[in-house]
């Protein structure tokens, strides 16, 4: 999918219905209000800061049994007293980063705990939103998720998205 994705958006249904929409290197939030979509937060309010993250959302925790680097990251975030954000869902966990301005979501993969998120349907659109908001993405090798060539419709990949500082930390640990 890569950088040529047509404007990705992520709907979120909760007490209110919202959509994050990425276009022209911006991310804006729209809220359904009385049957109409209304701009509720501008690009300036949907930015991901490069550092200062205090929220972590670990996924695929079974991989921590096979990947000592992932376990070290989880231990680091606990020791540094980061706030755990875990709903079990990619969209609500990552949406919180746009509300708070920072965060890190990791979903590494191992042989016994393979990647579950699909590049075309979940990973690519979220990566486009994060990068358009000033954040960073990676597959654990330092490569942007938007630079992964799609090999088939069900292509799955490991992922880390969020503040540049934390995605850099993820890459460094995974390479160690």
Mean pLDDT value: 90
Rg, rounded, reads 16 Å
Shape: globular
Low-confidence stretches: none
- The counted number of beta strands is 9
Outline the biggest β-sheet: 5 strands, mixed
Helicity, as a percent range: 25-40%
| Tally of individual helices | 5
- Termini separation (Å)? 29 Å
Strand order of the largest sheet: 6-5-7-9-8
Provide the structure class. alpha+beta
Topology order in helix (H) and strand (E) letters: EEEEEHHEHEHEEH
Strand content: 15-25%
Give a quick rundown of the structure.
The chain is 30% helix and 24% strand.
Describe the structure in your own words.
- It is built from five helices and nine strands.
- It is of the alpha+beta class and 176 residues long.
- The strands form two sheets. A five-stranded mixed beta sheet has the order 6-5-7-9-8, sandwiched between helices.
- β2 and β3 form a beta hairpin.
- α2 packs antiparallel against α5.
- It starts with 8 loop residues before the first strand and ends with a helix.
- The relative contact order is 0.20.
């Amino acid at each position: 999918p890569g950088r040529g994705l047509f404007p990705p958006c992520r709907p979120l249904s909760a007490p209110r219905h919202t959509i994050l929409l990425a276009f022209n290197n911006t991310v804006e939030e729209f809220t359904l209000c009385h049957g109409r979509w209304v701009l509720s937060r501008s690009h300036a309010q949907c930015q991901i800061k490069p550092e200062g993250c205090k929220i972590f959302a670990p996924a695929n925790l079974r991989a921590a049994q096979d990947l000592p680097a992932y376990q070290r990251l989880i231990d680091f975030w606990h020791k540094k007293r980061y706030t755990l954000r875990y709903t079990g869902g990619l969209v609500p966990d990552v949406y919180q980063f746009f509300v708070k301005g920072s965060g890190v979501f990791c979903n590494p993969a191992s042989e016994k705990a393979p990647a579950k998120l699909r590049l075309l349907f979940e990973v690519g659109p979220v990566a486009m939103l994060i990068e358009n908001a000033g954040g960073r993405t990676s597959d654990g090798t330092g490569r942007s998720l938007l630079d992964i060539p799609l090999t088939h419709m069900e292509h799955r990949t490991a992922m880390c998205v969020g503040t540049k500082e934390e995605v850099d930390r993820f890459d460094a640990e995974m390479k160690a």
